[in-house]
Amino acid sequence: MKLFFAFCYTDEEMNYYEELFKKIDSLFLDEKYQEVQSLIDDELNVAYVPRDVEERLRYFQSMVKEKTSIRPNLDDEQIEAYLFMDENHQLLAVDELEKRNLRDYYALCDRYLQSGSFRNAKVLLIDSLIRQEINKEYLYYDNESRFHFNPSELKPIEETDGFISAMNDLREIYLKEPSKLLMSQDLLFKECMLALPHNLNTDEGKRLAVKISRFIDDAFHADK
């Protein structure tokens, strides 16, 4: 995971935040989440924290919370039951399925993807099917539309032409604004995820980059 830091500071402040986030990044990669949380708490407790620095700290704080949350180990019956319950239960079931060999759950996954269930959970499952290169045809239902797809014929999001094209454009747009660049990458990945089982092409990626950059610039302008 590459870390970006704020840039509109004195040299002393710049060096401080650069080293701080490098340390947080390193600790996070080593899964030392308690130490990351301690550093974040120390920084957030000071009298003044620059807005973009606080945003990055809050971002890491949410990641620590996600990584340290206790998630139950589910058996097959619980997985099936959870998939057809509320949104939180669906996410737990999909998270558990991600750890399994999805070739053994074809019928269940196909039935779930055809259901009118939580879209965010269903696209996460599709992403897992793609990464496991499952060579079977599934039927995905979304908003009264149906799509047949074979996960083995699709690419992981970060390898698609649309994502690569959009990311290149966003790097050019935010070459000197690393906080916006990281935010744009997060939004891009989420938009590409929600497009599944469709992989965005180059032209779609370029249009999405424009849409994301306008959204971010408008959001930052509204804060001023």
What does this molecule look like?
The protein has 224 residues and is mostly helical. It folds into three domains: 11-68, no CATH class; 76-153, no CATH class; 157-222. Helices cover 63% and strands 4% of the residues. The chain has helices at residues 11-29, 33-44, 51-68, 76-83, 87-98, 106-114, 119-131, 161-173, 178-194, 202-222, and strands spanning 138-142, 145-149. It has a two-stranded antiparallel ribbon. β1 (138-142) and β2 form a beta hairpin. α5 packs parallel to α7 (119-131), α8 runs antiparallel to α9 (178-194) and α8 (161-173) packs parallel to α10. The protein starts with 10 loop residues before the first helix and ends with a helix.
Keywords:
disordered N terminus; 224 residues; 3 domains; mainly alpha; two-stranded antiparallel sheet
Instruction: Write the element-wise H/E pattern from the N-terminal end onward.
Output: HHHHHHHEEHHH
**Structure summary, number of beta strands:** 2
The 3D shape can be described as globular
What would you call the structural class?
mainly alpha
* Radius of gyration from the alpha-carbon trace, in angstroms: 20 Å
Number of domains: 3
Could you estimate the helical fraction of the residues in percent? 55-70%
Determine the mean pLDDT: 86
- Unreliable spans are 1-9
In short:
The protein has helices at 11-29, 33-44, 51-68, 76-83, 87-98, 106-114, 119-131, 161-173, 178-194, 202-222, and strands at 138-142, 145-149.
What is this structure's SSE topology?
Blueprint: H1 11-29, H2 33-44, H3 51-68, H4 76-83, H5 87-98, H6 106-114, H7 119-131, E1 138-142, E2 145-149, H8 161-173, H9 178-194, H10 202-222
Antiparallel strand pairs: 1-2
Helix pairs in contact: 1-2, 2-3, 4-5, 5-7, 8-9, 8-10, 9-10
